[in-house]
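Section 5.1 Outputs to date
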Amino acid sequence: RMVQGLRQDANLSPKDNIFLMIDTEKNLEQIIDINRKSLKKDVGAIELELKKSSKFIAEKEANIDNQKIWIGIRKI
């Protein structure tokens, strides 16, 4: 949901491919990495990088199970 909200914030359509960046704590990072392929498919991301970047068109910070997570996207 967070990624889809970021797509809307950036005025991207569902057909637009994105580069997804996620920065979070190690245990969430491991879960994301295990599910990398399905996550990319579900959100329409061509690439997923597990680090924070300064090159994004929309970003969001949140807490999941009391763990901080940052998500950024940019159009490819």
